[in-house]
Write the structure tokens for this entry.
Amino acid sequence: MTISSPTPLLGGLTPQVFMRRHWQKRPLLIRQAVPGVLPPASRAELFAMAAREEVESRLIVRQARSWTLRHGPLSRRALPRVDQPGWTLLVQGLDTHLDAAHELLARFRFVPDARLDDLMVSWASDGGGVGPHVDSYDVFLLQLQGSRRWRIAAPGDQTLVPDVPLKILQNFTPEQEWLLAAGDMLYLPPGWAHDGVAEGECMTASIGFRAAGRAELRSEVLQCMLDASERPESDPLYRDPRQAATDTPSRIPEAMHEFVAREVARWLAEPRSMACALGEVLSEPKPQVWFEPGQPLLSGQGVRLDRRTRMLYDDQHVFINGEALLAGGRDARLMRRLADDRELAAPLLAKLGDDATELLAQWAQAGWLHSLPT
Ligand code: SIN
Ligand code: CO
């Protein structure tokens, strides 16, 4: 897919037009966005995943007007019978667990990786759902199997039903309604109220995005800059040869305020270290992700990033799984290519310099990338 080609995924719009007209602005219903879509996991596989410690899952059961929520791990016995109506199991981060889910998520890489979050899959029995709610992030809701009725409303009254364990809107007045079949998809910008109810058993994928709050991003980036900043060998001390005698000894001297303001501003003005910290923060894998040690690279074969690897870059750096490296020239071009394509063919790999080749070998050992099969 190129960003200037119309695609069925976006109802015949090009990614460029979609981003301009719809992204963060208005919903879009797309019939047969992914014709013949196959769920990345079967119902049984999804249930088995929910029982695993390292998989994030939730069970939501509705009985009349009461809702219950349980967080995973959830053994099969903790789940109601599949013919019991009104319940749903949601499994987060399938893209880090299954290649097929990772590939489904990769179709949405017309949005920067720094904003793509994860692929969640829900299975619902007849009548199941999570209730009317709003999300603070954009979402594509792709119907994988069976049918689900979606009702949506523009951002409005966000009063929640009191005393329920979920965030359910008290005054949801749907404005539009559609029945989605397998392959259909609904895009919603942040803040749009929505309620999806299964008609018969169904599976839905949510392609989720992430956006840090201002304060959150600020503190994460500052913390990362702090962690990286070393005390210089010679740390010039504060000096005050002009300090006059004082009869208010408890007052902090104004010159000391100025000294600190100057030093902090100087430190913040290092554009490279801020960019470096941002890349490290954004490429940090999620806490539940870990890598098994990998195999040495096979000579003469290309490489592919592991589905769990987060690789990003800017003009000066390449970032991989929370680590930064300064890269320039041909090596940087090849590393960027690896990040964008998530693989690098053997002839391009052969053009990497010695240091970069050694780095790739280390990344393979860490399980961050693997040799491509021939
Ligand atoms: C679901 O799959 O049931 C919930 C997805 C959502 O509303 O965000
Ligand atoms: Co939602």
